[in-house]
Amino acid sequence: MPSTGSTREEVDARWQDAGSGEHYVHDRWRGQRARERDPRLIQRLLRAMPTDTGIESILDVPCGTGRLGGVLDAPLVVQSDISLSMLLNVPPAASHGNLLQSSATSLPFASGSFDLVVCCRLLHHLRESSDRQAVLKEIVRVSRRYIIASYWDAASYGAWRRRTSSPLRRRKRPDVRQAVSLEVLRAELDEAGARLVTRAHSFRFVSQQTFLLAEK
Questions:
Q1: What is the pLDDT of residues 123-144, one digit of tens each?
Q2: Number of domains in the chain
Q3: In a domain? residue 13
Q4: Were both Cys, which of 120, 143, 145, 213 would link to 197 (CB 3.0–4.6 Å)?
Q5: Higher confidence at residue 207 or residue 120?
Q6: 4 pLDDT exceeds 50?
C-alpha cells in the first residue's frame, strides 16, 4: 500500500513505491461502479466540447494503470506517469502504445503539443496551492486548447465530513488529501493561463470527486 504524503515530492515518491501499480490495478478499483465513474464523467465533458473541436491528440497524465484508455479516443494518445510500477501494470487493452515515464510538473513536450490534456486524481493529493499550480501550469502549457482535470470540491458533504471529523479519528487515520473551493480552483486556473468552462460531478454536493473542463 502506498505511503501518505502531501507535498509534490512526497506524492511523487508515494506512487513510485514498489507494488503501487499492482495495488492500483487489482485492489483500488474492484467495484464496477467505481471503475466506471471517472470515465463516465470524462465522457460527459468530452460531449460538452464544440462538435467541430477535432481532438487529434491527447495526453493522459498521470495515467496510472490506464483506467481511462477506453474513453480517450484520438489518432495520438500518450499515456504518461511518473511511476514505472504503474506503467508496467497497464493492461494491453488499455494501452494506446505510447507509454512514457515523466512527471506532471516537467513534461518532455513543446508548448501546445496536445489538443487535450487529461489529469485525473492528482490535484486532491496536493495540499499546497503552489504545488497544484505547478501541475496546472505545466499541463496548460503543453495543451493546445483543452484541459480536463479532477479535483475534490470543498462544497460537498464528503469534504464537510473530513473537516469536522474528530481529532482522535484524524490521528488514527491521517488523511492529507485536500478539497478546494470553486473560487480557489478558478483562481489557480487563471494563474495557469486557462479559464474554467464547466464541471461534471459524481454526486453533486455529496461526493468530493469533481471534473472540470478548462480552455486556454
A1: 999 999 999 999 999 999 999 9
A2: 1
A3: no
A4: 213
A5: 120
A6: no
Q: Is residue 157 part of a domain?
A: yes
C-alpha distance across the termini of the chain, in Å: 37
Does pTM surpass 0.90?
A: no
CA 202 to each of CA 53, 60, 182, 184: distance values in angstroms, whole numbers, following the listed order: 25, 20, 16, 20
Question: Any idea what the CATH number is for the domain that residue 98 is in?
Answer: 3.40.50.150
**pLDDT of res. 139:** 99
Question: Domain of 48?
Answer: 32-215
- Please check whether residue 155 lies inside any domain of the structure: yes
Which three cell numbers, joined as nine digits, stand for 93?
487493452
Q: Any idea what DSSP says for residue 103?
A: B
Domain assignment present for residue 3? The answer is: no
Burial 183-193 (b: 16+ CB within 10 A, else e): eebbebbeebe
